[in-house]
Design brief:
By secondary structure, this protein is mostly helical. 65% of the residues lie in helices and 1% in strands. Strands 1-2 form a two-stranded antiparallel sheet.
């Protein structure tokens, strides 16, 4: 799936759905939901790759079997030529690599951003005092609720919704200033930003690099108008950084903010 990889995809069973990341035994509800989706995305990715490899192996076995029972040398030669010129499942996978990688990357990015939104909701509901801000709530909104708990839930939803449309830098700043939580370290930040912006141009610009992508990622100006090529290594690198970010933030939220943690009966689902 990338320029330097073995032409035959690796079997899905040999790939870890968690990319070697050591998972905790406990976490927030948001963390458990993130891990469940993370596992599903990666299992689908490796299933498709493994299935393509399996189909190719079966095809090779069938071809060899047919050759072994064919006595006509001319027909054997023609069968060999047809085999070399055929379009294989691996060829189809290679041709559709960009589309496939975009789909998987978008799902990983959405899963990560959904985790941050969901965790914010958990924090606000369990610690209503963290909602303090200069934002005003109109009297009509207050009177629509039967309890303070219901009002807090509504205000939390509004805050989460407004933050969801912010840039990643704004989210980082909010988590840091409000909760003293670091979303990602300096080493992983660039990977996260590039992945999020790749998701944006995939969804809104057919993965063609535009000025917004360049300004937010620091890409070269000459890249404008070019396709942002994606490889499996890019997807796995972001997925691993995002998961390490989730685990670190989740641990901090439970320890620092006392957000309730739950023992996972089954990791990631």
């Amino acid at each position: 799936m990338n320029a330097k990889s073995n032409p035959k995809p690796q079997a899905a069973s040999s790939r870890s759905p968690y990319l070697g990341v050591r998972l905790p035994a406990t976490g927030t509800v948001s963390c458990n939901e993130y891990l469940a989706s993370f596992r599903q995305i990666n299992r689908f990715l490796y299933f498709v790759i493994g299935m393509a490899g399996h189909i190719e192996k079966v095809s090779e076995s069938a071809h060899s079997a047919l050759l072994s029972v064919e006595d006509d040398l001319e027909k054997q030669a023609q069968m060999e030529r047809d085999w070399r010129e055929r379009r294989s499942t691996i060829d189809d996978l290679r041709e559709n690599r960009q589309f496939f990688m975009e789909v998987v990357l978008v799902r990983h990015v959405e899963n990560y951003l959904n985790y941050l939104s969901s965790l914010l909701r958990e924090i606000f509901v369990s610690r209503p005092e963290t909602l303090r801000s200069s934002d005003k709530i109109d009297l009509e909104t207050v009177l629509k609720h039967d309890s303070i708990q219901d009002l807090v839930q509504t205000v939390a939803e509004r805050k989460v919704e407004s933050l969801t449309y912010s840039s990643f830098s704004s989210l980082e700043e909010f988590f840091s200033n409000r909760f003293s939580l670091v979303l990602v370290d300096d080493k992983g930040r660039q990977k996260v930003i590039e992945a999020i912006e790749a998701r944006n141009i995939s969804v809104h610009n057919r993965c063609v690099i535009n000025q917004r992508y360049i300004s937010r990622t620091g890409a070269k100006q000459t890249d404008c108008g070019e396709l942002k090529a994606l490889w499996i290594g890019d997807v796995e690198a972001f997925a691993k950084v995002a998961t390490l970010s989730v685990l670190a933030v989740d641990k901090g939220a439970r320890k620092r903010l006392k957000v309730p943690g739950h023992r996972f009966s089954k990791l990631g689902g």
